[in-house]
Amino acid sequence: MKKIAIFASGNGSNFHSIMEAEAKKELKIKTSLLVCDHHEAYVLQRAQGLGIPIFCFNPREYEDKKAYEEVILEHLLAEGVEYLILAGYMRLIGQTILREYEGRIINIHPSLLPAFPGKDAIGQALDAKAKETGVTVHYVDEGMDTGPVIAQESVRIYENDTEESLKKRIQIVEHRLYPSILKELFQQEHVNIG
Ligand code: GAR
């Protein structure tokens, strides 16, 4: 059983889908910590309801990224966390955490990377009048959504799509894809691209 921490900034629907799979014993993981950077995020209520330990912080209360990542790292190491699963965490992982967890950080992003990286990937795809977008699960490196791709699934964009309708279809894919990829990855003894 691998100990993981989930990093999230907002609603936490992906957190929920991972926790559901974990509860059904479909994943060989134990979520030992939720790391969150917004005190009002709904994901906090989800974690509280499940009794998951939380470290929530306000980045503005720290001098810089290094300062708050050092505190996050202390929590991760104290809980014996082995892998980091980013699920709607809207910050770049900095060197402090990367150095310790390189090759053991996984992210989900709502586009077919390298298309539409960064914030508002769904709005970017609509603005570009793209015919398809999708979901990418990938390893995290120091770039913005640039690490090696683990899995991708496409989602068609219709002419009458709004941000809301497209997001809904993308998230249906996310909630199925992320737990199933984590299931596959954690069946192996070592989840590490080196
Ligand atoms: C998800 O769609 C995830 O792919 C995206 O944030 C959303 C979080 O939703 N992540 C990114 O855009 C990362 N660059 P959730 O809080 O309901 O899981």
Automatic annotation (TrEMBL):
InterPro entries: Formyl_transf_N (IPR002376), Formyl_transf_N_sf (IPR036477), GART (IPR004607), GART_AS (IPR001555). This is Phosphoribosylglycinamide formyltransferase. GO terms for molecular function: phosphoribosylglycinamide formyltransferase activity. Residues 2-181 form the Formyl transferase N-terminal domain. It catalyses: N(1)-(5-phospho-beta-D-ribosyl)glycinamide + (6R)-10-formyltetrahydrofolate = N(2)-formyl-N(1)-(5-phospho-beta-D-ribosyl)glycinamide + (6S)-5,6,7,8-tetrahydrofolate + H(+). GO terms for biological process: 'de novo' IMP biosynthetic process. Its EC number is 2.1.2.2. Keywords: Purine biosynthesis, Transferase.
